Structures are given as C-alpha cells and as structure tokens.
Amino acid sequence: MSAMRLIFDIALTHVAGRGRQTLVAVIGVAVGVGFSIAMAALMQGGQDDFVRQLVDTMPHVDVTDEQRTARRQPAEDLFEAVAISGLRPRDDRRGIINPTKAVSWLEEWMPGRLAAVLNVQGVIRYSGREVGAVVIGIEPEKEMRVSPIVEDFESGSFSALAAGGNNVVIGDTMASRLGAALGDTITAISSEGRARNFKIVGLFHTGTTARDEGEGYVLLKNAQILSNRPNAINEIRIKLDDPNAAPSIAHRVEVELGYKAVAWQEANESILEALVVRNVIMYTVVAAIMLVAGFGIFNIVSTITHEKARDIAIMKSLGFSETDMRRLFVIEGLAIGIAGSLLGWTLGFAITYALSQVRFEIAATGQEMTRLPIAWSVLHYGISTGFALASAAVAGYLPARRAARVNPVDIIRGAT
C-alpha cells in the first residue's frame, strides 16, 4: 500500500510540476467532455421528442381492413399446381367483418383503449372551392381516449359532435383554403358520389400539415350514411398502456382477426433505423473528440518520461518494477483525464442549460417548437467521462511502456 501511495505522490508531483502544459491538457479534455455532453443532450432530446410525437400522434397499433398477404384462391387449396390469370377484382367495399365482435374481443384482454372508425375518401366543398379530404367517422368519447387531437382545438371540440346533428370538425388549414369559418355549412362528397351537408362546430391545429388540411371528423353514423355502409368500420385505433408492447399486441391481433395490424414501430421502421445510425455517428464524433484530447495527454506524459529518464533509472535501481513504472505514467494520464472530466461536467452542464433556454418558433414546416428539446441524463456524463478516461489511459500507457523498458545502468552511466 505504501509503494502505491508513493507512486501516486510521484505522479501528482510530475503533473503539477508542468503547470502550463498540464493546464492546456486539462482544458483540452474539459472542452471535449463538455461539448460531448451538450451534443449528446441536444441530439438525444431531439430524438426523444420526435419519438414522443410519433407515439402521441398516432395509434400504437393500427388495425385496418387489409390483409398483409393476398388471400389464396379456392383452387390453390384444392390443387398443388395451379396457374391463375385473368382475375377481376370483386366490386365490393372492404370493411372489418363482424366489427362488434372484433371490438368486444379486443376489449376483453387488450391493455389499453381503442376506438373504431370509418375512413371515407372524398371531397369537401364550400363556396365553389373544393379540397380533397378524408372524412373520418368517430365515436367522440372513445376517440378522445386514443387521440391527442383533443388538445389541439382552436375552437369547439369533439363534444360538439356528440350533441348530434350533421356536425363536423376540420383543420384550420382546410378552413382557410375553403374560406370557411366556425358555424358555416360545408358539403362532403364521398368517392361514390353521395353528398351530405355538415356544420363546422370545431377547428383544430395539430401542426401537421397533412392532417390540418386533409382531415375532417364526423359522427360514425354520419360517415356510414355518407358512404352508404351501415354499421361498417374499416379501422381500429389502439392506444396501449405500454407503447413498447405494440409489436407483440399487433402480432396477436393479426393472427386472431386476420386483418393487418401495424405497430407504431413497424410504421416508422425506417425512421427508427435512421435514429440508430445517427446515434452511432454521434458517439463516433464523441470518440474522435476524446482522441484529439488524448494527444495532449500523450504529449505531456511523453515529455515527462523523457525529462525524468534519470529519475526513472534511479527508481528502478531502488527496486521499482516495470509494472510500477507503467502504473506511474498511466496514473499521470488518468489524473489529467479526471481533472478534465470534472471541469468538463461543469462546462457541459452550462452549455446544455444555455441551449435549453433558447426559444424559437418554426411554423412554415408544419411543426412548431418553442424551445430546443434537451435530454438531461447522467448517462451522457458517464459516457463522455468513459471516453475521456479511456483516451487518457491509452495516452499515458504508450509512453509508459517505453519508460518501463529503460535500463537504469545505461541511463545512469550516460548521465555521469
């Protein structure tokens, strides 16, 4: 223990004895750690905010009246080798068969909330202007449990739909394009040519252009009348208590019901993969920053081993082993790394806090933000410090190997 303490004392004496060089090396590590922490906080915050928006603004599991693979023809079930050509699609409109039974089955075991809807493709017309839109038939009370759009109303609400009558809520962008306002009556025309008048009882603004200019919500029964499909639904939206359970829930629903069930992770697979790639790039940059900082540590430890060659020889002649020598200079590198990391924590916190106070607004892109999304995580400090200490240890070990191989006889003889 006394020998180890002596090595620590010698290491700290060597480092403190080169004040200016040590300070430069410490600042280099601190800048690297500080900016790494701030960069990680900003990028992780942006990623978390983006994923949160995905999770909040879309169903965790979306069940539609489609099949993931085409249904087999009856002849394919009877014969091993079948060639089929010239098929013509049936003139029917899809929908989830036995919707009441399907919804009841889901409510029995599914850990979350759900809402059945009917999407009707069509056109909304007002005062000679037309906008292509999806008229979505909903049950207001259930939709409010699965959709965050209830928080985005500028005027009116889903509750106005529940009052009955031919009412509709639309996006503010659609209203602007039509020249319509709250209380005006618009005409919805389905793709089958059926028309129905609706009174605007609510305007919403989600910040997503596609929704604000292309969606309108009506009562489910009114959508069924508009499309001439009584009791029909073609989508079940599911919000889970645990969004991460979406893939397993979707798989079970698809197997049992036979309809395509898409988890939010599957729907955004390419985006999530891009986020993984971005994280790899981010930590590669962090490693590069720490590598550059390591050169400063390597430089100062190398200088110490060169200038203290006679001291090293004397220590080895007094019984210090090669392992002790390597340990000595690795400790010197780590001492600089630790000091730089502690200073870097303060710098990183200050930069991160400053970034969190930046306010701005972007409305032209369809998304609004008032503050930079920042993720405060101890993990960022730990990872940056880990990279810094690893770089410091390597930077100290390389010259330590050379110092450990010094022959004390040659050094002392050369100095006399």
Overview of this protein structure:
The structure is a single chain. The protein has 416 residues and is of the alpha+beta class. The protein contains 16 helices and 10 strands. It has helices at residues 2-17, 19-57, 74-78, 99-109, 140-146, 159-162, 172-178, 209-214, 220-226, 246-257, 264-267, 269-307, 309-317, 322-356, 378-404, 408-415; strands at 61-64, 112-126, 129-138, 153-156, 167-171, 185-190, 195-204, 215-219, 235-240, 261-263. It has a 6-stranded mixed beta barrel, surrounded by 4 helices. Helix 1 crosses helix 14 and helix 12 (269-307) packs parallel to helix 15 (378-404). The longest helix is centred in the N-terminal third of the chain and has 39 residues, at 19-57. The mean pLDDT is 84. Residues 284-408 form the ABC3 transporter permease C-terminal domain. It is found in: Cell membrane.
* Amount of helix: 55-70%
Q: What is the string of SSEs from the N terminus onward?
A: HHEHHEEHEHEHEEHEHEHEHHHHHH
Average of pLDDT? 84
Distance between the termini: 34 Å
Number of helices: 16
Shape: elongated
Poorly predicted ranges (pLDDT <50, ≥5 residues)?
A: none
Strand segment count: 10
Number of discrete domains? 2
Strand content: 15-25%
Class derived from helix and strand content: alpha+beta
Map the helices and strands.
Blueprint: H1 2-17, H2 19-57, E1 61-64, H3 74-78, H4 99-109, E2 112-126, E3 129-138, H5 140-146, E4 153-156, H6 159-162, E5 167-171, H7 172-178, E6 185-190, E7 195-204, H8 209-214, E8 215-219, H9 220-226, E9 235-240, H10 246-257, E10 261-263, H11 264-267, H12 269-307, H13 309-317, H14 322-356, H15 378-404, H16 408-415
Parallel strand pairs: 3-8, 5-7
Antiparallel strand pairs: 1-9, 1-10, 2-3, 2-6, 2-9, 4-7, 5-8, 6-7
Helix pairs in contact: 1-14, 2-12, 2-14, 2-15, 12-14, 12-15, 13-16, 14-15
